[in-house]
Specification:
- The protein has 281 residues and is α/β, with parallel strands linked by helices.
- It has eleven helices and nine strands.
- The protein is globular and about 55 Å long.
Length: 281
């Protein structure tokens, strides 16, 4: 088995369609895939159906934009193999999507005031089928430069960071509520890329309310992160996952399946997911 449990599509802030992502995954020999679009399950049905056609087992997934209010840090929480309705997850995430969209509209107004040409309807078309506009859609409207190029990164920082006209962020969901919602919907809750967001101190606290695992293999993780995550997994009997965090042209260039887990307990996690998917779907 070759699993990539962290990819994004055009249902949130990825550039590629579900079909395009699946075709790339198939070319890389991926057998199990999870689309963890930010705060939405809109593409899950399509992903599962298209996955069946190309011989890839798709696990229902989401990446919830959450916050550690005790330490004032962002934390992303991944949910896997949850129920079809995902009622608790959607109840938690819909306000996030509403706030994200409203904030993006405000950002576009500020960017226009700063002298840039911003056409709201064109940005909204770029975002489709997502009904929520993300910064990536605004940037795609403003520049054709590749994500990793100096010109793209300079423009991005000048607009959205520090004293930029569109700097600032929305209020995120409490990380504890994110885990609870995933568990209420019968899913498995995993802390995403803790090395990227320094989420390590929070993990033992989330274990107390049912956290199932930690994302170990991620492009931003170092050998030091791997060692720390391995120790946490041993201490708290946590499952380990991995994924490429693929966003297509809207993110750092990565190959789907490049962070395929190769973990000693990876089969255990996938078997749990498969069992839950059979129960729910």
């Amino acid at each position: 088995m070759k699993a990539d449990l962290h990819v994004h599509s055009h249902y949130s802030d990825g550039s590629d369609s579900v079909e395009e992502v699946l075709n790339q995954a198939q070319q890389q020999g991926v057998t199990h895939l999870s689309f963890v679009d930010h705060d939405t399950v809109a593409g899950v049905w399509e992903a599962i159906e298209r996955g069946r056609r190309v011989g890839i087992e798709v696990i229902s997934g989401i990446e919830i934009s959450a916050y550690d209010f005790k330490r004032n840090r962002k934390v992303h929480v991944l949910g896997y193999a949850f129920s079809v309705a995902a009622s608790a997850i959607q109840a938690l995430c819909q306000p996030l999507l509403d706030r994200r969209h409203a904030h993006s509209l405000w950002q576009m107004e500020r960017i226009a005031e700063a002298g840039y040409s911003v056409e709201h309807k064109q940005v909204a078309r770029l975002a489709l089928p997502s009904e929520t506009i993300y910064k990536q859609h605004i940037m795609a409207h403003l520049t054709d430069a590749p994500f990793s190029s100096p010109s793209y990164q300079t423009l991005y920082r000048s607009l959205f960071k520090g004293d930029g006209p569109a700097a600032g962020d929305i209020i995120y969901a409490d990380a504890f509520d994110a885990v609870r919602a995933i568990k209420e919907d019968g899913g498995l809750a995993v802390v995403a890329h803790p090395g990227q967001l320094d989420s390590y101190d929070l993990i033992p606290e989330l274990v107390e309310i049912g956290l199932d695992g930690v994302e170990r293999n991620h492009p931003d993780h170092s050998s030091t992160d791997h060692a720390e995550i391995d120790e946490l997994a041993r201490d708290y009997d946590l499952l380990l996952t991995g994924g490429s965090d693929y966003h297509g042209s809207f993110g750092t260039p990565v190959t789907i399946g490049s962070e395929a887990s190769n973990l000693s307990n990876d089969d255990r996690f996938l078997q749990l997911c498969k069992r839950k998917m059979k129960e729910h779907w």
